[in-house]
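quick one before i forget lol
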Amino acid sequence: MYKHLIFPILSKFDPEFIHYFTMGCLRTIYRLPGGKAILRLLFDYSHPSLETEFAGIKFKNPVGLAAGFDKNGRWIDELATLGFGFVEVGTVTPKAQDGNPKPRLFRLKPDQALINRMGFNNDGIDALVENLKKRKSSIVVGGNLGKNKITDNSLAVRDYLITFKALRNWVDYFVVNVSSPNTPGLRELQEKGPLLEILNALQKENGPNGKPIFLKIAPDLSYEQLDDIIEIIQESGIAGIIATNTTLSRANLKSKNVEEIGAGGLSGKPLKERSTEVIRYIKGKSEIPVIGVGGIHTPEDAEEKFSAGASLIQVYSGFIYEGPGLIKRINKSLVR
């Protein structure tokens, strides 16, 4: 029903407007008498075999929502009724920032993909913390950390430490985002020197009994760069990798308006194979735990990520194109 009736209607409107409109509708349903129970009945699915322990955290199932969907932690309780095992909020920066000029989010329907150049638009760390304090759900929550656009790369460590310290008591795990293509110069922080500086500073602040820290990496890294990433993870001692962020590649797209759209990170089905390749490469060279994300639109796509070595997965574009029923379908497939 969603894919053939609801999505075709929603896709006639601006993607960013529809994002806030649909989440407003979800919140309205959630707050109606019996609304929460109806949402859980429709979309939630639980089974003992889905319960997963990863990085010392217990997840009710291994299917999560990737960062970028709920940047400010406004809808965690509502999203928890849709069957997710965990939700990642952010990317958050120390200070609020507007992000890049609109329009900045685009659908590529023939490719079942999205291009975004949001630019870390968010209300800042203080607003996120206040929203996290209000949440009632016990769902596992991760915090995705970034730096402000105006912060020079030489001072990036400061920004990551600010957001880390502020979120310490309010999230279950952390993600260092140095791989978004939409903040100028950010991907330069994936180089060995600056990345080790950031991760070592966070690990020192975290302490020996701290919460898991993951690194989110780009799919556009060469195998030589991935070898460096593996070495950096092992040297810093952080918990693992999230593979992958959006890609700058525009290879083999069917959509005709790609050049007109311009810059931005591509997500969705075209990313599926590369993100799986990156997961398989990392797991073939190391024992580093991996959370897989990129192009998951079906239960079969999810199975590919797990077969490649991912312990958990996250969805984003697939959730938009396939609807909230996708999470239930994946979890039922995993039980079968």
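fyi The two ends are 23 Å apart (CA to CA).
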